[in-house]
Known about the structure:
The chain is an alpha+beta fold. 10% of the residues lie in helices and 23% in strands. The protein has one helix at residues 61-68; strands at residues 16-18, 25-27, 37-42, 54-59. The strands form 2 sheets. The protein has a two-stranded antiparallel ribbon with strand order 1-2. The longest helix has 8 residues, at 61-68. 4% of the residues are buried.
Amino acid sequence: MIRYKSETKTVEEITSLKCDKCGKEFDAKGFEVQEFHHIKFTGGYASVFGDGTEVDCDICQHCLHQMIADICRQKEPT
């Protein structure tokens, strides 16, 4: 016999994403959020961000493109 335990859990659902650079908010059901970039890391020893500092930001594709377009390498799909 299999016995089950019943419990209620709260599930958080993303409704929108806001760009930390431009401040524009995008509906989570739109295609734009598929191109959002989430950056999260911890600063290492002697980091310019601070040793052990947690860094976290969400950037839309348009702001990221503005920031790195002239320095990134892009390769077309083959």
